[in-house]
């Protein structure tokens, strides 16, 4: 992850030199710089049975979700599947164009004595 952070601070010439040094395609390295992560699709699978589950996975950074037999345990599987699709769609549409900032680590407040 440190190399990706360093990559984000490089100009185009430095990115080109870096891509050449690591023997990687320039386009791939540039895409990694722009995304702030490797351009690999991340899916969540297993235990995704509700729209809330799907939305949470998307908020955590997944590009999509797989649903399995869990949706068939609901009273109306077709309705549940549509709701999950809507949840994923709305999460994808609401994503910012840049990666979200890292969550700061807050210090625990000291108790006053």
UniProtKB/TrEMBL annotation:
SUPFAM superfamilies: Ribulose-phoshate binding barrel. One of its GO terms (biological process) is pyridoxal phosphate biosynthetic process. The keyword Thylakoid does not apply. The keyword Metal-binding does not apply. Residues 89-113 are annotated as: Disordered. Pathway: Cofactor biosynthesis; pyridoxal 5'-phosphate biosynthesis. Its EC number is 4.3.3.6. GO terms for molecular function: pyridoxal 5'-phosphate synthase (glutamine hydrolysing) activity. It catalyses: aldehydo-D-ribose 5-phosphate + D-glyceraldehyde 3-phosphate + L-glutamine = pyridoxal 5'-phosphate + L-glutamate + phosphate + 3 H2O + H(+). It comes from the Eukaryota. Keywords: Pyridoxal phosphate, Schiff base. Gene3D superfamilies: Aldolase class I. Coiled coil: none annotated. Catalyzes the formation of pyridoxal 5'-phosphate from ribose 5-phosphate (RBP), glyceraldehyde 3-phosphate (G3P) and ammonia. The ammonia is provided by PDX2. Can also use ribulose 5-phosphate and dihydroxyacetone phosphate as substrates, resulting from enzyme-catalyzed isomerization of RBP and G3P, respectively. Also plays an indirect role in resistance to singlet oxygen-generating photosensitizers. PANTHER family: PYRIDOXAL 5'-PHOSPHATE SYNTHASE SUBUNIT SNZ1-RELATED. Belongs to the PdxS/SNZ family. This is pyridoxal 5'-phosphate synthase (glutamine hydrolyzing). It comes from Oryza sativa subsp. japonica. The gene is B1151A10.28.
